[in-house]
Amino acid sequence: MDYRCETRGDRFLVSISGVLTFDDHEKFRQVVAEIADCAPATVELSLATTRMIDSAGIGMLLLANDKAGRCGKSLRLSGVTGHVAKVIELSKIDQLIPVD
After folding, report:
1. What is the pLDDT of residue 70?
2. Where is the STAS domain positioned along the sequence (predicted)?
3. Residue 65: inside a domain, yes or no?
4. pTM, 2 dp
5. Considering the domain boundaries, does residue 35 fall inside one?
6. Do 96 and 65 meet the contact criterion of CB atoms below 8 Å apart?
7. What is the pLDDT of residue 29?
8. Which spans in 6-45 are helix H?
9. Which of 19, 30, 43, 96 has a CA that sits 20 to 30 A from residue 71's CA?
Protein backbone atom coordinates (compact mmCIF):
# COMPACT_ATOMS: atom_id res chain seq x y z
CA MET A 1 0.00 0.00 0.00
CA ASP A 2 1.08 3.49 -0.82
CA TYR A 3 -0.90 6.61 -0.02
CA ARG A 4 -0.92 10.30 -0.69
CA CYS A 5 -2.81 12.97 1.26
CA GLU A 6 -3.81 16.43 0.15
CA THR A 7 -6.33 19.09 1.06
CA ARG A 8 -8.58 20.05 -1.85
CA GLY A 9 -10.79 22.95 -0.92
CA ASP A 10 -13.18 21.81 1.80
CA ARG A 11 -12.14 18.14 1.77
CA PHE A 12 -9.15 16.03 2.72
CA LEU A 13 -8.28 13.51 0.01
CA VAL A 14 -6.41 10.30 0.81
CA SER A 15 -5.48 8.29 -2.28
CA ILE A 16 -4.61 4.67 -1.55
CA SER A 17 -2.83 2.63 -4.21
CA GLY A 18 -1.72 -0.97 -4.58
CA VAL A 19 -3.15 -3.53 -2.19
CA LEU A 20 -4.71 -3.01 1.23
CA THR A 21 -4.16 -6.09 3.38
CA PHE A 22 -3.20 -7.04 6.91
CA ASP A 23 0.45 -6.40 6.05
CA ASP A 24 -0.39 -2.70 5.67
CA HIS A 25 -1.92 -2.15 9.12
CA GLU A 26 1.11 -0.26 10.48
CA LYS A 27 1.23 2.10 7.51
CA PHE A 28 -2.54 2.55 7.64
CA ARG A 29 -2.22 3.85 11.20
CA GLN A 30 -0.42 6.84 9.66
CA VAL A 31 -3.43 7.38 7.38
CA VAL A 32 -5.77 7.35 10.38
CA ALA A 33 -3.52 9.83 12.23
CA GLU A 34 -3.54 12.17 9.21
CA ILE A 35 -7.34 11.95 9.06
CA ALA A 36 -7.55 12.89 12.74
CA ASP A 37 -5.16 15.83 12.26
CA CYS A 38 -6.59 17.28 9.05
CA ALA A 39 -8.56 20.52 9.10
CA PRO A 40 -11.41 19.73 6.63
CA ALA A 41 -14.50 18.04 8.05
CA THR A 42 -14.97 15.92 4.91
CA VAL A 43 -12.55 13.09 4.23
CA GLU A 44 -12.49 11.20 0.94
CA LEU A 45 -10.64 7.91 0.67
CA SER A 46 -9.95 7.32 -3.01
CA LEU A 47 -9.57 3.66 -3.90
CA ALA A 48 -9.29 4.34 -7.65
CA THR A 49 -5.78 2.88 -7.81
CA THR A 50 -6.32 0.17 -5.19
CA ARG A 51 -6.06 -3.19 -6.97
CA MET A 52 -7.02 -5.49 -4.11
CA ILE A 53 -8.43 -5.36 -0.60
CA ASP A 54 -8.94 -8.19 1.90
CA SER A 55 -11.01 -8.51 5.06
CA ALA A 56 -8.29 -6.84 7.14
CA GLY A 57 -8.35 -3.93 4.68
CA ILE A 58 -12.10 -3.64 5.18
CA GLY A 59 -11.47 -3.54 8.92
CA MET A 60 -8.96 -0.73 8.43
CA LEU A 61 -11.53 1.27 6.45
CA LEU A 62 -13.96 0.81 9.34
CA LEU A 63 -11.31 2.03 11.80
CA ALA A 64 -10.71 5.12 9.65
CA ASN A 65 -14.46 5.77 9.54
CA ASP A 66 -14.71 5.40 13.32
CA LYS A 67 -11.78 7.76 13.92
CA ALA A 68 -13.18 10.33 11.50
CA GLY A 69 -16.55 10.21 13.27
CA ARG A 70 -14.96 10.63 16.69
CA CYS A 71 -13.16 13.71 15.33
CA GLY A 72 -16.39 15.22 13.99
CA LYS A 73 -15.59 14.39 10.37
CA SER A 74 -17.41 12.45 7.69
CA LEU A 75 -15.67 9.83 5.58
CA ARG A 76 -16.57 8.75 2.03
CA LEU A 77 -15.06 6.20 -0.33
CA SER A 78 -14.55 6.99 -4.00
CA GLY A 79 -13.13 5.34 -7.10
CA VAL A 80 -14.38 1.90 -6.10
CA THR A 81 -14.11 -0.46 -9.08
CA GLY A 82 -13.26 -4.04 -10.02
CA HIS A 83 -12.16 -6.41 -7.25
CA VAL A 84 -12.41 -3.66 -4.64
CA ALA A 85 -16.02 -2.92 -5.62
CA LYS A 86 -16.90 -6.61 -5.31
CA VAL A 87 -15.36 -6.84 -1.81
CA ILE A 88 -17.11 -3.61 -0.75
CA GLU A 89 -20.41 -5.02 -2.02
CA LEU A 90 -19.98 -8.42 -0.37
CA SER A 91 -18.91 -6.94 2.96
CA LYS A 92 -21.79 -4.43 2.87
CA ILE A 93 -19.40 -1.74 4.09
CA ASP A 94 -21.27 0.66 1.81
CA GLN A 95 -24.08 0.53 4.38
CA LEU A 96 -21.71 2.12 6.93
CA ILE A 97 -19.48 4.28 4.75
CA PRO A 98 -20.93 6.21 1.80
CA VAL A 99 -19.45 5.23 -1.57
CA ASP A 100 -19.39 7.72 -4.46
Report:
1. 96
2. 1-100
3. yes
4. 0.93
5. yes
6. yes
7. 96
8. 25-37
9. 19
